[in-house]
Specification:
This is Glutaredoxin. Pfam families: Glutaredoxin. Belongs to the glutaredoxin family. Keywords: Cytoplasm, Disulfide bond, Electron transport, Redox-active center, Transport. The chain is of the alpha+beta class. It has a single domain, classed as Glutaredoxin (3-Layer(aba) Sandwich), CATH 3.40.30. About 40% of the residues lie in helices and about 20% in strands. It contains four helices and four strands. A four-stranded mixed sheet has the order 2-1-3-4, with helices on both faces. The structure holds glutathione. The site of glutathione (GSH) has 11 residues, from helix 1 and helix 3.
């Protein structure tokens, strides 16, 4: 089953690169919105992320995960796999 994964990024952002590398390493495909290229999506991201304004903001199957550190913490705790189909 495929996953609905969305990540809001900026091109220069090392946390974004790290987060995408983890998803890539798991073969997880995602929709990426670069808010540097599309600044009009920034407000949408902040609203969906309950006020968080840093990038990346990551959403997995309708759930707000948070940023790169949050996703890495879930991975370290062995909890990321259960969020993915
Ligand atoms: N702990 C956060 C750090 C994210 C972070 O600091 N992102 C920077 C860009 S690398 C940011 O969004 N800065 C504010 C901004 O660009 O508006 C995470 O792991 O995602």
């Amino acid at each position: 089953m495929s996953n609905d994964v969305t990540i809001y990024t900026k091109d220069y952002c090392p946390f974004c690169h790290r987060a995408k590398a983890l998803l890539d390493s798991k073969g997880v495909t995602y929709t990426e919105y670069d808010i540097g290229v599309k600044p009009e999506l920034r407000e949408e991201m902040i609203e969906k992320a309950n006020g968080s304004h840093t990038v990346p903001q990551i959403f997995i199957n309708g759930q707000h995960i948070g940023g790169c550190d949050d996703m890495m913490a879930l991975e370290a705790q062995g909890k990321l796999a259960s969020l993915l189909n």
